[in-house]
Design brief:
flat; mainly alpha; single chain
Length: 97
């Protein structure tokens, strides 16, 4: 079980490195007056992100890729999530949506 906890710690460190600079403003820096406001995430997008995280975590706990076949985890865990997000990305590019 320690391998799973190590993976979670690494994921949390990566998330902190990526998102903390965006959340915490720098000292003495003011936002540009002509800046574009950030669009808030919709409920569907938040649900998709949460489902993706729990699905990959569940598949990692079930398949234990650090002890057995990591390729099976890529096909059964990461593959469907990646395919789903790619389909959503392509569908969002079409007009009328």
């Amino acid at each position: 079980m320690s391998g799973f906890q190590e993976l979670l710690v690494i994921v949390l460190i990566i998330v902190a490195i990526v998102f903390m600079p965006r959340i915490v403003p720098r000292r003495g820096e003011r936002p540009a007056p002509g800046g574009r406001p950030r669009k808030a995430l919709s409920g569907r997008m938040r649900l998709g992100i949460a489902f993706s995280v729990f699905y990959i975590g569940g598949m990692a706990a079930w398949l234990v890729p650090w002890q057995s076949d990591p390729l099976a985890f890529l096909w059964a865990g990461v593959g469907p999530v990646l395919a789903g997000w790619l389909i959503c990305w392509v569908a969002a590019g079409f007009p009328g949506r």
